[in-house]
Every structure is written in C-alpha cells, then in structure tokens.
Amino acid sequence: MLSWLAVCCSGVLHINAAYKGPRWQFYLFKPLTIALMMLIAVFGGEPNGYTYLILAGLLFSLFGDVFLMLPKDRFIPGLLSFLVAHIIYSVAFWQSFEGSMVWWLPSLIGAASVIVFLLLLPNLGALLIPVGIYITVIAQMAWGAGEFWMSAGTQPAAYAFGGALLFMVSDTVLAFERFKGPFKASVLLVMTTYFCAQGLITASVLSL
User: Smallest Cα–Cα separation from 164: which of 199, 127, 132?
Assistant: First the structure.
C-alpha cells in the first residue's frame, strides 16, 4: 500500500510541476513514477515470463518518457521507445491468451483507431506513416489485452485490459495536443490516464 502511495505522490508532483514548476520536479518525478512501478513489479510479481515482459515494457516506457520531456524534444525516439513498449506488452498479453477469439472486439477497437487516425490525418505531414504504425500497434495491444481478459476472466487480465484501454486514451489525447494544438487540461488528462494505465498493467503481475 505504501509503495502505491509513493507512486501516486510522485505522479501528482510531476503533474503539478508541469503547470507550476519547478522544472527539476517536472524532470524528476515523471521517470521516478515509472521506476517505482518497476520496483513494485520486481518485488511483488512472480518471477515468470509475463512479469519480465511487463518490466521490459515499463523500462522502454521510461526511456520514452525521458525522450519526450527533454528540453529539446525527441519525439521520434520517444515514439519508437513507446512503440517497443507496446509490442512487448502485446507479447505478454497474447502469450497469456487461451481460447477462442471474440471478433467484435478488434472491430470496435479498429473502428475507434481509424476514426482517430482520420481526425489527425490533415495535420500529420511527414509523420503520417510513423503515427499510423503506432496507432496500429497500440490498437492490437489493446485487442490482445481484451482477448486475455475475456478468455481468462481473472483480476490480472482485467487490470491488463483496463490499462491498455487507458493507454489508448492517453496517447489519443497526447496526439491531439501535439498535432491539433495544446489546451490547458491536456497535461492533466494525458498524465493521469498514462500513470493509471501503467499502474494497472503493473498491477496485473501482482495477482498471478
């Protein structure tokens, strides 16, 4: 419980610093929040393949966080880091899936992803293909988590699916902020959903 309280405090301090400063607090607490989740997974998760994959996904997410918050924005390296994280999460979820697929789920996720892509399309420019690939990867990651949940019906699977969906929400808001223009509540929305997404995915290793 205290470890999750530390995660929450670290996340809140980062979001607060994004609006009010100081800058050192902004730079410190974003990666620290993910690092604390990694420690929770290390000490609370079973030493198995699923836990190791989630840890690897968190590590690449941490790299992505650092790239995206550098004073000189490294958007492409950040995008690639999160792309790798989503691929790793996807492997973890699909490896945990057993049974028959529910085909209406990818239809819903795919339709939502296409709508987001079409809304962003006029503003993507040279990033059209990288963003399209990223949207495809995160959509199939959420699909894998959803199939995992519907086949297993367990609490860890529910955490994984909830985290994957929140990740889609976070990245969608971030994409609209970057390509359509910033708005005041964007940081709060992006980071709250992002930290909750990573927290749920981390929690999925604790009940296995």
Answer: 199
Q: How far apart are CA 39 and CA 59, in angstroms?
A: 11
Of the candidates 58, 57, 55, the residue with the CA atom closest to the CA atom of residue 47: 55
Helices (DSSP H) in the chain: which residue ranges? 2-20, 23-44, 49-69, 75-95, 104-124, 128-152, 155-180, 186-203
User: Within a domain: residue 118?
Assistant: yes
Separation CA 32–CA 55 (nearest Å): 14
- Of residues 93, 94, 127, the one with CA closest to residue 204: 93
Rounded distance between C-alpha atoms, residue 169 and residue 26, angstroms: 22
Confidence (pLDDT) at 72: 72
Which tokens hold the place of 23?
């800058």
pLDDT in tens, 145-197: 999 999 988 999 999 999 999 999 999 999 999 898 888 888 999 999 999 99
Please report whether residue 26 resides in a domain: no
Assess if residue 142 is contained within a domain: yes
Report d(CA 50, CA 9) in Å as an integer: 27
Q: In the chain, how many domains are there?
A: 1
Query: What confidence tens digit (pLDDT) does each residue in 42-79 have?
Result: 999 888 999 999 999 999 999 999 998 887 768 888 88
Could you list the residue range(s) of the whole structural domain that residue 176 is in? 49-203
Its pTM surpasses 0.85: yes
